[in-house]
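Cross-posted from the bioinformatics board.
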Amino acid sequence: MSKCTIIGAGIAGLMAAHTLQGQGWSVVVLDKGRGVGGRMATRRIDDGVFDHGAQFFTVRDPRIQKWVDSWLAEGIAVEWTRGFTNASGETQNDGHPRYRGAEGMTSIAKHLAKGLDIWLDQKVTKISAQNSLWEIQTEKVTFTSDMLIMTPPVPQSLALLDIGQVMLPAEARAALDEIEYHRCIAVMVLLHEPSGIPSPGGIQINDEPISWIGDNFQKGISGAYGATIHAAPIFSQTHWETDTIEVAHLLVEASEKWISADVKKFEVHRWRYSHPIQLHNESCLFVDSPAPLVFAGDAFAGPRVEGAALSGLSAAEKLLKSVK
Ligand SMILES: Cc1cc2nc3c(=O)[nH]c(=O)nc-3n(C[C@H](O)[C@H](O)[C@H](O)COP(=O)(O)OP(=O)(O)OC[C@H]3O[C@@H](n4cnc5c(N)ncnc54)[C@H](O)[C@@H]3O)c2cc1C
């Protein structure tokens, strides 16, 4: 039985784990977080529920549509809308479904996690190769396995391999070194009244200083009024070190036109690796030396949930083929 360790219980790692386990492999998934989902993240503030990473997902590829159809049938995912409001206040319906998790984006990850051997709160600190086996060291335990899939943002994966002095083939290393990410500062605001955001509850501004504002109440995941504000890349970069209260104040002020409600409470989350700026030209990257290793995630098959899911599937398929 082939043994594979997967780092990351985001959508890429979970899709890879399902595929390999479905083929009879022994799979262990490690994540540093306290929950699964990675950037598909949902958080509570009092009685408010907030998606603060990915807000929705779309599907174009029939391989992922199959999974989404089953999530819809089981009530794990729900169609949110077929179009959001733009910065001019116009809401457009382009006929293309935008989905959400039934109770927030983590619903999908929690569903996928069932039946998998997932170790949470396991921050990997070093990866090394010994006699063609991977040795994966966390703050608490050391795991060994024949194969490894790495789904953290690429610079984080490379740092772990560097600590363990793993030499990758030069061409692969050069391509991975190119991959960089935007940052995103997210502010979650619990509100006293409904926001002024028009139905269906999402504004794609795609400008500075704000890229997106989502109304978690209208979205249908929160019983309390609340909004998620995503800062755009330049604002996020410029204010990365800015004090939490000040950064929240600046973003709430910039969203006033849309939110127009008193803030009861807020929390800030800083996504150091939000969206990849450059993509690798393959849906995952396989290297067979010093032992089989696949890099996967949204930097490979597309900078969104669907791309990460596809990359996870590709990573599993690559490993399955490599042992045939
Ligand atoms: C603010 C924001 C808004 C977004 N909006 C959308 C959207 O609306 N629609 C959309 O489709 N996409 C959106 N995205 C992108 C989408 O969330 C990602 O493309 C997708 O979730 C990436 O999945 P992944 O599995 O590749 O990576 P991740 O979800 O990042 O998973 C990687 C996992 O690796 C773990 N990890 C990292 N380092 C270690 C370590 N040392 N040890 C153990 N575990 C580790 C992390 O904890 C994480 O769980 C958004 C992202 C952000 C941040």
